Amino acid sequence: MKIDGKAMRTIWLEADGASVGIIDQTQLPHRFVTLILTTLTDAAHAIKSMQVRGAPLIGATAAYGVWLAMQADASDDSLARAYETLHATRPTAINLKWALDEMTAVLRERPQDERAAAALQRAGEIAEEDVGINQAIGRHGSVLIEAIAATKSKGERVNVLTHCNAGWLAAVDWGTALAPIYTAHEKGIALHVYADETRPRNQGASLTAWELGRHGVPHTVIPDNTGGHLMQHGMVDLVIVGTDRVTAQGDVCNKIGTYLKALAAADNNVPFYVALPSPTIDFTVIDGVREIPIEQRGPEEVAVMTGKAADGSIVSVQVVPDGSPVANYAFDVTPARLITGLITERGVLTASRDALAKAFPERAKSAI
């Protein structure tokens, strides 16, 4: 995708051939900063601290993290240590485990002197596969937007609501939930995006709004509690969100607050779609509410907010009283019954076990 007309990805191999570059997303939207990862520790820190985030990008970063580890030490112990270190960084996003399993499968039987080169090749393939998958999601999802546009008066725009950030910043490129939006925008479809601010961390306000603005897509940032009101008044044509894990029966785990948007959409007959790459499907899990581990992050993400002051300085302020306990659940689960469709690289599916297994039989079979 583009930043002020310049093509950019979220992760790349540096010119030295021995390190990886990333965008430090904790500095957005007020500072654009890139970092270089040179060690396994760097990669693990980038994932855990959310310098990189979003299920597809987490997976790609983990893959490159294994490569960085293999450059330093290609032993079996080092491979096992890299797996455990990276796997422990974020418990909810299944792409992380998928990417680590892919890397381990490639490297386990390789001689140690071949592991670094093989790891770099597979990590690069995982990154490129993510781009291709998300482009396909964009093609399939943009058809939904075009169909709504066809019912509009000339010049009237399609209004899409999204929650959190599932754009190209959450993937290697294109993104998941925003891929259909970018694809439709490139086709000249008149559209507008309502971006939930997405407390805590404000990833909609700071990341989704930033990337949409830099790419030239019309958008408006709204408080998290505004979506229901907009739907009641016919101001939202469809909702598209991303996901960190989808169960075998189509339950969706995404950023906290997604479930509430799905309830509002169902009550107002607004189509509610989830865009996902197939590595996000976890066929080993059936009931998302009961089986998916929900990450609980530090209270400071709720208690403290960071922004730009009037003088241009970046400041952090506490917004809760001293001593007030804070709960910070990072995700919630939306049951399949509330989902209109799943936008995948193989088409738009119903949120059901049969549809997922039929579309991705190789993944369903490997989970048995």
Layout of secondary structure:
Blueprint: E1 2-3, E2 6-7, E3 11-13, E4 20-23, E5 34-37, H1 40-48, H2 55-72, H3 76-87, H4 94-107, H5 112-149, E6 158-162, H6 179-186, E7 191-196, H7 203-215, E8 219-222, H8 227-232, E9 238-241, E10 245-247, E11 252-255, H9 258-267, E12 272-275, E13 281-282, H10 288-291, H11 300-303, E14 304-308, E15 314-318, E16 331-334, E17 341-344, E18 347-349, H12 353-359, H13 361-366
Parallel strand pairs: 6-7, 6-9, 7-8, 9-12, 10-13, 12-17
Antiparallel strand pairs: 1-2, 3-4, 4-5, 10-11, 11-16, 14-15, 17-18
Helix pairs in contact: 1-2, 2-3, 2-4, 2-5, 3-4, 4-5, 5-6
Could you give a short description of this structure?
With 368 residues, the chain is an alpha/beta fold. It has helices at residues 40-48, 55-72, 76-87, 94-107, 112-149, 179-186, 203-215, 227-232, 258-267, 288-291, 300-303, 353-359, 361-366, and strands at residues 2-3, 6-7, 11-13, 20-23, 34-37, 158-162, 191-196, 219-222, 238-241, 245-247, 252-255, 272-275, 281-282, 304-308, 314-318, 331-334, 341-344, 347-349.
Name the descriptors.
single chain, 368 residues, alpha/beta, Four Helix Bundle (Hemerythrin (Met), subunit A), Rossmann fold, 2 domains, 7-stranded mixed beta sheet, 4-stranded mixed beta sheet, 18 strands, globular
Describe what you observe in this structure.
The protein has 368 residues and is of the alpha/beta class. It has two domains: 2-128, translation initiation factor eif-2b, domain 1 (Four Helix Bundle (Hemerythrin (Met), subunit A), Up-down Bundle); 138-366, 3-Layer(aba) Sandwich (Rossmann fold), CATH 3.40.50. The protein is built from 13 helices and 18 strands. The chain has a seven-stranded mixed sheet with strand order 8-7-6-9-12-17-18, sandwiched between helices. Strands 13-10-11-16 form a four-stranded mixed sheet, with helices on one face. A three-stranded antiparallel sheet has the order 3-4-5, with helices on one face. Helix 1 runs antiparallel to helix 2, helix 2 (55-72) runs antiparallel to helix 3 and helix 2 (55-72) runs antiparallel to helix 5. It is globular and about 65 Å long. It starts with a strand and ends with a helix.
